[in-house]
Amino acid sequence: QQRLLREAEDPEVAVILLDVVLGWGAHADPAGQLAPVIRQARDRSRGAGRWLPIVVTVCGTDLDPQVHDAQTGALTEVGALVQSSNAQAVRLAALIAEAAGARGQPRTPLRLAAPSAPAELPEAAGIVALLAERPRVVNVGLELFADSLRAQGVAVVSVDWQPPAGGKQKLIEMLDKLGA
Question: Are 38 and 5 in contact (CB under 8 A)?
Fold first, then answer.
């Protein structure tokens, strides 16, 4: 819980992604524990003029002791963006991070016009369309990953890449000197 609050206060954090697991051996009420912390994190962020989305998946069913619908309802009530699968949650979190500037450039946090005004995500229709599509993957390196994706019907482009000079630092330095 403290980690969640610490990350929420970091202006470099564009989105928080959480998995909640239900069932025997899991916390008796994970949403009951997380909901006040999520509310506090979002309030702190809003107070700092930032919009901090918290994307969550809940893994379980209504037959679990914690009851899936009750857990998702409690999380949604405090503003968590509950997604129905890990894949959807990861895609949404990635799109939010990209919108916040995480493309290898210094990130500028999304700022609110006023503490009560919601920030708008760019191209919301594009986000929804992307979530509805099958993934397209560029696999760099291990062909095993590409094979696994292909077996699931995912379009994959493989790039046979290896680190220069076999990753040996001395050889890389020598090659750098030759190129200079």
Answer: no
Give residue 92's identity as a one-letter amino acid code.
L
Cα Rg, the chain, nearest whole Å: 21
Residues 22/64/84/41 CA torsion (nearest 10 deg): -40
In order along the chain (180 residues), what is the average pLDDT of each group of 10 residues?
Answer: 85 89 87 94 88 92 93 94 91 84 50 50 61 74 78 82 73 77
Distance CA(91)–CA(127), nearest Å, equals 9
Cα separation, 117 vs 102, whole angstroms? 23
Q: How far apart are CA 167 and CA 126, in angstroms?
A: 39
Neighbours of 44 (CB within 10 A): 14
What does the angle CA 43 – CA 44 – CA 46 come to, to the nearest 5 degrees? 65
Q: Alpha helix (H) ranges present in 24-168?
A: 30-47, 68-77, 86-99, 124-132, 143-151
**Cβ atoms within 10 A of the Cβ of 157, count?**
10
> Which residue, 70, 107, 75, is CA-closest to 89?
75
